[in-house]
Design a protein that fits this description.
CATH class: Alpha Beta
Number of helices: 5
Radius of gyration: 16 Å
Distance between the termini: 23 Å
Structural class: alpha+beta
Length: about 180
Amino acid sequence: MTDTNRRAGPLPRRDDGGPASPVAVRPATARDREWGASLMARSEPWVTLGRTLEASRASFADAEYRVFVAHDDDEPLGFLILDPRGVAGAPYIKSVGVRDDVRRRGVGSALMAYAEAICRHDGARDVFLCVSSFNPRARALYARLGYVLVGELTEFVIPGASELLLRKRLGLDPPGA
């Protein structure tokens, strides 16, 4: 699979009421990474988790991670950070963030579909992610996308909240099967 723009899902209507256009997902540029770090530092769940702008920038700058951005006419809508070998060598979706004004309009789903396609192409059988127990909208999205709970890390990041480890089987046979 190439990392060229890939169209996925419906884009929300523009603020001016114009017609929707498809969400495009691509590898993040340096400018996209700075935008994503800024969005992360000022958005939930990262505000509650105490994520600073500096820590957000570090996540976006890590050379081990693959970072993607959803956009409309080069206007960033959301991001996804993928650690290709995050859980026992299996891909781990480290973070997904979407601008508040375009949430619940397919941007997160488009980012997830793009990352899952890359994982499949790379031969992964599973993909993992964590979601905070206090983030019901994200939990519902991941459930709709086929992710299931495989573990709970109680009070892992902050007191009184858990990080829920989710897995999705990608349906590939193991090598040599």
